[in-house]
Write a structure and sequence with these properties.
Shape: elongated
Structural class: alpha+beta
Low-confidence stretches: none
Largest sheet: 5 strands, mixed
CATH superfamily of the largest domain: Hypothetical protein, domain 2
Helix content: 40-55%
Oligomer: single chain
CATH topology of the largest domain: Endonuclease III, domain 1
Order of helices and strands: HHHHHHHHHHHHEEEEHEEEEH
Strand content: 5-15%
């Protein structure tokens, strides 16, 4: 049996203690949608750096839809999970071409947009249109599992269905309360009911929290089985022209750094040497650089760059890359480790 005061407590707490000055806390569905996509698997502090740049360059969904994908990926570079940026661009074009430039106001319509799942669609509907829709991201699951002492496998569809039903049963009656309620769930999970060291003394649910009453806060929600992190060796061919220009190639849309520009990248030293030969460079002309690491969700990239001077391009049938002068690198979406590596070289030059 759910406590009828859950929504009331949460709304009151959010209005007094929640976050109120985030730039996307508006009713414009474009701004809400953009922020929700950026906030997927990304912390608020990081998004606060990227969001203003996006809205300055693309103030409307029509502006975003009209842009080239390379420009969108360039602005997104460093934010990670690049499929989000590609889906963002596709969804903007959907809004313009399919929905006449107007965002659907119902969750079901929003779910038709690329990259928008049920919880994201519900958040947009709640914030922009005051619809009574439940969200269920990681923070919300943690709050619900603790307050109501629900113990289940996060990967179990039956348990997730139970959480959705509970989330829907807790919604406030008044649609006008939905922004404060939805933001309250996000704020509570992010700032108080944290994964480790929750601030139970500051929680509006502390006297009804069943996990706290049963001394189960540390064990709920049940921890996921974390996949083993695999090390993936990569080899970069960093070719610089005498004027400082760097040879870049566009990555395939699928896989690591999909759609971004990168120096030629290989999973074996043999592949790198074969590619270098197309530029007239052989192993004795390659200078091995200190290796660097970059962590992805379930992979640790061990990257070894090999630098060389080159002034010719390979045959067109072997590479459709291009020379990019160092002052123009900012115009291309680069993987974060490559951005840092190249800027380190430029600074040291």
């Amino acid at each position: 049996m759910t406590d009828p005061s859950f929504a009331t407590r949460l709304i009151r707490w959010q209005k007094q203690h929640g976050r109120h000055h985030l730039p996307w806390q508006v009713r414009n569905p474009y701004n809400v949608w953009l922020s929700e996509i950026m906030l997927q698997q990304t912390q608020v502090a990081t998004v606060l750096d990227y969001y203003p740049r996006f809205t300055a360059r693309f103030p409307t969904v029509a502006d975003l839809a009209a842009a080239e994908q390379d420009e969108v990926l360039g602005l997104w570079a460093g934010l990670g999970y690049y499929s989000r940026a590609r889906n963002l661009h596709k969804a903007a074009r959907q809004v313009v071409e399919t929905f006449g430039g107007v965002f659907p106001c119902e969750r079901e319509g929003l779910e038709k947009l690329c990259g928008v799942g049920r919880s994201t669609a519900a958040a947009i509907a709640a914030f922009a249109f005051h619809k009574r829709e439940a969200i269920l991201d990681g923070n919300v699951k943690r709050v619900l599992c603790r307050v109501f002492a629900l113990d289940g496998d996060a990967a179990d569809k039956k348990f997730e269905k139970q959480l959705w039903a509970l989330a829907e049963s807790l919604l406030p009656e008044n649609g006008g309360d939905m922004p404060a309620y939805t933001q309250g769930l996000m704020d509570l999970g992010a700032t108080v009911c944290k994964r480790s060291k929750p601030l139970c003394g500051s929680c509006p649910m502390t006297d009804i929290c069943q996990a706290k009453a049963r001394n189960r806060t540390a064990e709920l929600p049940r921890k996921k089985n974390v996949p083993e992190v695999r090390t993936l060796p990569l080899f970069w061919l960093v070719l610089c022209r005498s004027d400082g220009a760097v040879w870049l190639e566009k990555r395939p849309s699928e896989g690591i750094w999909g759609g971004l520009y990168c120096v030629p990248c290989f999973d074996s030293l043999g592949g790198l040497n074969d590619a270098a030969a197309h530029f007239g460079i052989f192993s004795d002309g390659l200078e091995e650089q200190p290796a660097l690491t970059h962590r992805l969700t379930h992979r640790l990239l061990l990257i070894t760059p090999f630098a060389a001077s080159a002034n010719k391009s390979p045959p067109k049938h072997l590479s459709d890359g291009l020379w990019v002068e160092k002052q123009n690198l900012a115009n291309y979406g680069l993987p974060k480790p490559l951005h840092d590596f190249l800027h380190g070289r430029i600074s040291a030059a």
